[in-house]
Amino acid sequence: MTDAEECPGSAALRILLVEDNDLNRELLGDYLRHCGYEVFTLAQGSSFFRTIEQFQPNLVLLDLRLPDVDGYQLLEELQQQPHLPQLPIIVISGFAFQEEQQRALKLGARHYLVKPVSLTKLIEVIEAEACTSSP
Q1: What is the pLDDT of residue 85?
Q2: What's the rounded mean pLDDT across residues 32-48?
Q3: Secondary-structure percent of the chain, ordered helix, strand, coil, rounded to 5
Q4: How do the domains of the chain map onto residue ranges?
Q5: What residues are paired with 59 via a beta bridge?
Q6: Peptide bond between residue 82 and the one before it cis (omega within 30 degrees of 0)
Q7: In this model, does residue 5 exceed pLDDT 70?
Q8: Dihedral through CA 67, CA 99, CA 24, CA 43, nearest 10?
Q9: How far is it, in rounded angstroms, from Cα 109 to Cα 32?
Q10: Is 111 helix (H, G, I), strand (E, B) or coil?
Q11: How sure is the predictor about 96, in pLDDT bands with cuts at 50, 70 and 90?
Q12: 51-62 core/surface letters (b: 16 or more CB in 10 A; e: else)
C-alpha cells in the first residue's frame, strides 16, 4: 500500500476496537492484526476510558450502538478529557442516516463509516488518519 510507504511506522499503530457484536469484533480484530496493527478489543463501552489509559491507542474504531453505553455519550465524554480530544475516532456504525453521521462528526469523530464497511476503505481511512496524526 503506497500510503504505508509515505507514512512509515503507521502499520505499528495501536487500535482500540469497540464493537459489541462478537463475530464482527473477532473478524475485524483478526483482519486488522493480519494487516500489522496492534489491536485491543472491547465488547462494551463501560471500560472505554480505563482501556484508553492502559492500552494508549493511536486510534479508536467505535460502534455507536453498545449494550451498556451510547457511543455518542462516549464521544461527548472524550471531548471533556483534556489529554484525549486529539485521539482520532473512526465511527463504524449501522446508523446510515445523515443526522446520525453529522452528530458523530460534531462530537469529534474524524470519520464515519456505515456497516457493512469495505475493508479496503477502512484501511485507507486508518492509514490516512495515521499519517495526519503522526508528529
Answers
A1: 65
A2: 95
A3: 45, 20, 35
A4: 2-133
A5: 15
A6: no
A7: no
A8: -30
A9: 20
A10: strand
A11: confident
A12: bbeeeebbbbbb
d(CA 8, CA 130): 10
50 Cα distance to chain centroid:
16
Q: Which fold does the domain 2-133 belong to in CATH?
A: Rossmann fold (3.40.50)
Q: Determine contact, residues 53/12, Cβ cutoff 8 Å.
A: no
Residue 39 has pLDDT above 50, yes or no: yes
Enter the C-alpha cell of residue 39. Answer: 489491536
Residue 115 contacts residue 79 (beta carbons within 8 Å): no
Sign for the pseudo-dihedral over CA of 73, 75, 80, 84? positive
| The C-alpha cell that represents 90 in the structure block | 473512526
- Reported as half-sphere exposure (CB side, CA atoms, 13 A), residue 122 has a value of 23
* β-bridge mates for residue 40, sequence order: 16
Backbone angles phi, psi at 118, to 5 degrees: -70, 125
